[in-house]
Amino acid sequence: MDSDEEDYVFFGTPIEREEEITNRRKKAAAEASGNLRALPPWKQEVRDEEGRRRFHGAFTGGFSAGYFNTVGTKEGWAPQSFTSSRKNRAEVKQQSIFNFLDEDEKAELEGTLGTSSQFDTFGFTAAEHARKQADKEQKQRPSAIPGPVPDELVLPASESIGVKLLLKMGWRHGRAINDSRASSLYDARREARKALLAFASEDAKAPCPADEPVEEPESFTVQPSDDDTRSSQSLPAFVCNPKQDLHGLGYDPFKHAPEFREKKRLHLLNDKQRGDRKTMSIKDSLFGSKSGKAAPGFGIGALEEYDAEDEDIYAAGYDFEETCIEDDEEPSRLGIESKQPSRLSIESKQKVVARDQGVLPGFKVASVSDYQLERFDPPVIPKDFVPHHKFPGPLETLKKLDVPSPPEVPPPDDSNLKLLIEGVAKLVARCGKLFEDLSRKKNQSNPLFSFLSGGNGHDYYERRLWEEHQKFGDQAKLLLDGKLSPSTQKMTAESRGKLLGEKPLERSSRETTTSSVASGEFQLQFNLSDTFKKPDSFSKLPEVAKPFKDDPAKQERFEQFLKEKYEGGLRSTGYTAASNMSEAARAREKLDFEAAAEAIEKGKRGKESMVPTQPLDFLASGMQFTSGGLEQVENSHAEDLVTKKMYPRREEFQWRPSPILCKRFDLIDPFMGKPPPAPRARSKIDSLLFIPDSVKVAKPEEVAITNRDVPAAQTGAQMTIEDVAEQEIEIVAENVERPVDLYKAIFSDDSDDDVEDLNTKKAQDPEKKTEVATTALNRLIAGDFLESLGKELGFEVPPDTPYSTNKANDLRIETPNSDSGNAKLSTGTYLNPGNETAQDGDSQKSKSIPVRSGGYNSGKHTVGLLNVSGKVNEDKFAQEDKKVKSPSSRRRNWSSSSSSEDERSRKHSKRHRYRSSDSYSDPSSDDREHYCSRSKGKRERSSREKSSRSRKHSKDHKHRSRDSPSRSHRGSEREHSEARKEKRKRRD
Amino acid sequence: MSSSELPRKEANVLKGHEGAVLAARFNSDGNYCLSCGKDRTIRLWNPHRGIHIKTYKSHGREVRDVHVTPDNSKLCSCGGDRQIFYWDVSTGRVIRKFRGHDGEVNAVKFNEYASVVVSAGYDRSLRAWDCRSHSTEPIQIIDSFLDTVMSVCLTKTEIIGGSVDGTVRTFDIRIGREISDDLGQPVNCISMSNDGNCILASCLDSSIRLLDRSTGELLQEYKGHACKSYKMDCCLTNSDAHVIGGSEDGSIFFWDLVDASVVSKFRAHSSVVTSVSYHPKDNCMITSSVDGSVRVWKT
């Protein structure tokens, strides 16, 4: 082939067959360098020097493998001689990674990182090594100081955090880390010592010395030339000047002023000692065993000895003792240090001197200093100052009982004045002299009150006051006798509460009066909320202005009302006693009170500087039954006024803005950092909707008491109890937290996490929820209860009683100005088919749904009507509405409502259950009549000249027929909605 | 401002809406005004020259309220299609639609920074929508109302809503409180006084009530007009000296703020006056009516 090629002239480079030539050569070269080893065995090929594979031929197995088709090596396979393991046990082979590595790998591995004992700063070997080195050096070098080099001269390097941690965990220098702490001996000793310590700490002075051995047990065992266990000796760290400053290397700021260096060092040292107790104790241990001997044998058994292990770092119970040690030790440590110079260098001598003098060496304290402390004379006490505080009013009204009675005086002719005097006297008797002073001051210019300051009717007032005192004293005595005298023997919860100014649970007194009501737990709950009220709410009462001065009984009730309002309690005895009032009158009065209270509240904000009277006073009066008012007749005159006062009415609730809303409004989230509320959207609504319901919680007793006139209400009351019980479970009330304080708001960062939190934290402990719910319920009731109850009461009519006549009357009274707008619209309500279906259902359950749907739709219609702007254009939508409105379809709508609406419907059902319980619980057949009569009542009001019902009806029809069909339809919708409004109004 | 300076002279009639105009609003500087109505459009006008500038069409039902940002760049509108539309003023495109109300939306307002739209719906809720993010979920739902919310006002820190349940509820974001002032009558429209201390609430018993915001006190009642079934606006003049309200018979009433006497009254429209808006600086007023016109009134 070669010869052939020479005959031709080749142009260019011939294409080489890669596989054949280059590959082969490469492989040969590779084999030579042993690269083939990289291949797995089954891919390795045996080749000759030229890189050719040998082919044996078909019979001998193709290409050769191994070493000439035999074994892997030239030597071939040689059997090893057998060695019996019986005699020669297999030696324990120290295996290391090097056993398994090849030469080249070993070579590679040399350069890698590895542990080196050279840098083992706290390992045993290093310590040992260093120590031996030191020993050797010491032997070589004759020293002026006999014995080993005092280690004190060589300060240890500042410890690394690892060392510190280990020290904290009980490790000592020179010890293996996994020392056997768990030995039973150790434990036993420790236990024994603990017991002893516990004994010892009985007396006051013991703890301080007792702890010392615990703290520094080493100091006992440490002897200057001890064995290896000696702690501070095992680890001499020969870093003489640990770099602790921030200066550059080699820079010495104190080069020309060495005095300052010392000063600075001292300073640092002090800081350190103050800051780190541990290092101090270690340092102390350096100075021999003196300090440890402060209390030899204390807290340790006679047969025991200390060592490092005895330190019980986990004994957290003695923390307080450690703190007092710190103080106690200070002088002793100083003492030690002052002794140091004998052993320490001159430098430290200087240090001590410096400390004694308090100035730098080379400086002297100036004898005259420019700086003068400015001193101020103490304030001059006026000469007439008597260091004894006189209370403006007597604290104890009962003490006045022994005042001789003023002579009997005929009352003044003016009956108004008489009433006034009596009222004031009563109040003064109850609230103390303070009240008299106050009202005198207030009414200085009022001639009507001249009797307070010795004017007309003064003697009568005196007499009345005395009488009231007598009466009141008797009552109070009774109460005190009943309540306090047994408790003087022993502190009961009651008496304790009394001392703290808490309102006692009124269970005992109430249960006697309201035996028919079995809602003890409710009472308890509400009273619990009362119990946590602060006593300062009492203090507000005496300063209350008296809006009903001319009517003492009413004023009294008003006070009662206020008390309950501010204390947030249930209505108690006072109201029930005045049961001869009609419900409506009572409701009205309550509204009156509400308005007055608000006015007072407003006025009061300015002046809050009253001396609180003693709570006992009010406790006594709070329990009291007040006599029923006789002046109810007057109330009816004020009715119109009342309804005017009724609105606008302000309420406040908690509301939680979402964090992102706050962000968008560029405001600080008031609830930032607070846990998210229990599902807010629902709870808010629920609690709001429940106000009327939850009010009923309170009502049972109310009803029970007032039922003297209306016995049939009992069933209604029971029902409400059930309702309430249900709500107790269902309700998830708003949480009662307050907004975060300003500090938090400013200094905690606001982040978007809150948004997520809202979602994530929604799942809460159900128990917590109910807890919150009950408290919130209580609170709600406390706040809103009275006002809503007032309205409730006026209109709450038992289901069986004929409803129409009352209602009409009430309505007439209640809404004098609403009629003009609404009467025309609401007349046809009873004809509304939607409304009738709403009341068709028999059972409570089935009823609630249609009612709810009706309510919902009527709401819709309200809007629809409000937005009616084009009568012509409206038709289209009106027809759509009509479609929806046919009763059957409406129901279907609701039954197939989506889940989102489901929840809402639940809300509604709650709300409407209540509604249905009072207004719709009548059989449906009655409804028509109700509506008739109701509309009649209104009708009469609106169009006074038209009194006959038939005429009105005809007018109604006329009115309707005048309209186009769609319009009339809308009209009925409107009426429907108006009726709903009416309903709401009534309910409110 | 004496009563002689009240805008009683008709300066312009803005015609273009087919059907009732439900709301007419000045923009923040009073140079332009927006109206919206039953014809499902929003229209931008120059009321001083009487020019129709632009029409915004996208709503599927009537448009009940519209509001424009202080920088005039964005609009929000709402209406019968249960959505709040967030518009770009110049292009006339809808940037975003906020869905979530379960019923018609009666009123809508931007907050001060135009970052949040608050809408009042027939589903008895106030909803706040975020304009900054792309989320179309409401960032806050206030559903403590017992009935349809008719109107909403925003201050820097509060959201105020008036509802058919007769309450005006103030939601103070700073302290997390809801203050509910029950007026006892369905509230049709609320509007803030320019000093921010009072709320004017138009009630369905044909009276407009002035409430002190801090105490909830009823300061004054303004009567004489008819407002029983329509959603009608009321407002104060820019000097807070007079109260303006429309009537269902098409007339406009001016009351003296303090003594509640009817200072002036004239018939402005042939049908119900749905909306009144007062110029922020000048003595100029626009009214809209069911008769399909928007009228500009000047002294």
From TrEMBL, chain A:
Keywords: mRNA processing. This is SURP motif domain-containing protein. It comes from the Eukaryota. Residues 128-140, 493-510, 872-884, 962-981 have a biased composition (Basic and acidic residues). Pfam families: DUF1604, HTH_TGH, Surp. Residues 949-961 have a biased composition (Basic residues). PANTHER family: G PATCH DOMAIN-CONTAINING PROTEIN 1.
Automatic annotation (TrEMBL), chain B:
InterPro entries: WD40/YVTN_repeat-like_dom_sf (IPR015943), WD40_PAC1 (IPR020472), WD40_repeat_dom_sf (IPR036322), WD40_rpt (IPR001680), WD_repeat_MORG1 (IPR051980). Keywords: Cytoplasm, Repeat, WD repeat. PROSITE patterns: WD_REPEATS_2, WD_REPEATS_REGION. CDD domains: WD40. Coiled coil: none annotated. WD repeats lie at residues 14-55, 56-97, 98-130, 266-299. It is found in: Cytoplasm. Belongs to the WD repeat MORG1 family. PANTHER family: WD REPEAT DOMAIN-CONTAINING PROTEIN 83, WD40 REPEAT PROTEIN. This is WD repeat domain-containing protein 83. It comes from Hibiscus sabdariffa.
